[in-house]
Amino acid sequence: xNASHSPFARKLGAFVALSKKEHLTLDRxxxxxxxxxxxxxxxHQGQTNQAAYILASGWVCSYKILADGTRQIVDFxxxxxxxxLRSVLFRTSDHNIEPVTKVExxxxxxxxxxxxxxxxxxxxxxxxxxxxxxxxxxxxHLVSIGRRDAKERTAHFxxxxxxxxxxxxxxxxxxxxxxxxxxxxxxxLGLSAVHVNRVLRELREDGLVTFQHGxxxxxxxxxxxxxxxxxxxxxxxxxxxxx
Length: 243
Fold this sequence. Notes:
With about 240 residues, the chain is an alpha+beta fold. The strands form 3 sheets. A 4-stranded antiparallel sheet has the order 1-7-2-5. A 4-stranded antiparallel sheet has the order 8-9-11-10. The chain has helices spanning about 5-10, 20-30, 85-90, 110-120, 120-145, 150-165, 180-190, 195-205, 220-230; strands at about 35, 50-55, 60-65, 70-75, 80-85, 95-100, 105-110, 170, 175, 210, 215-220. It folds into 2 domains: about 5-130, Sandwich (Jelly Rolls), CATH 2.60.120; about 145-235, Arc Repressor Mutant, subunit A. The radius of gyration is 18 Å and the shape is globular.
């Protein structure tokens, strides 16, 4: 896929109208493509001298392992997302990145980032926007775990995925493909897999959304948004600010 039409370009295009020069720079960033199998960490906690990646296809999760061996998934990354940006800027990676599916990603070294930021400041600003947006999502997830009940939390998360996937051309207002198991959702939402199963059943019986067989089907978007009190302002999808 030409980088100009990649999910990453689509995502950055929500902030800045990319010029020809900036598209050419993206082509260079996509130069080192790698394929990773599901279930094997691309980045592990404590690792040093780690590259970052631009995800071209597939899904991954970022997670932390606690001292007792339990796992908290911080977020999922989808095509168009920058993986491990902190890992390449920090001396030591503070989290793990594991493919949920087979993924294809472009390796980005720190020198690549520095050259890109030096040559194309607007592109650097767009990457900063993407990183800030990721931080906003983590804040929203903290609010969900701390203050939303299990049903609202799940509905909010499914709506967030919908908005993110739609932005990069992989979803619509009516639904999207989603490879996440109930166990993965449980580790994300701070619930048990049994509780996730019950919540998904209730959302389906309420006529709001169905998540089955790797697909999320939204039956009543307005109703789901109202129920979850979902305000997508934090995702900042209103169109390019820089032209």
